[in-house]
Amino acid sequence: LKYRHPERAPEVRVRYQPQEAHQVLLVQDNGLGLDLAQGQDKLFAMFQRLHTHVEGTGLGLYMVKRMVENAGGRIEVRSELNQGSTFSVYFPR
User: Which of 12, 32, 48, 74 is deepest in the core (most CB within 10 A)?
Assistant: First the structure.
């Protein structure tokens, strides 16, 4: 729970949501959130980090995206700064 908000207990919710064309895995947290104005492309790029005050290599989300795409899926994120993020992972049926 590297990117947790310092003023609240961390929460992570994992849900499955079947859709007609996809199986969707949703991962939601109440962490720091992200400023997506910097671009979702940067978020999933190798060696890129949006939170520099926390140690990391910038490989985690890059590797997740590659694995999801190699399985024929895609990943999207919705986020609000200081509120948390929801990652939606779409896998083909």
Answer: 32
Report which DSSP code applies to 29.
Answer: E
Task: Give the C-alpha separation, 85 to 4, whole Å.
Answer: 11
The parts of the chain modelled with pLDDT lower than 70 are 1, 39, 50-54
CATH code, 12-92: 3.30.565.10
pTM: 0.85
Where in the chain are the domains?
12-92
- What sign has the CA pseudo-torsion 10, 88, 41, 63? positive
Report the distance separating Cα 76 and Cα 36, nearest Å.
Answer: 11
CB 72, CB 91: distance < 8 Å: yes
Which helix (DSSP H) or strand (DSSP E) does residue 69 occupy? helix 60-70
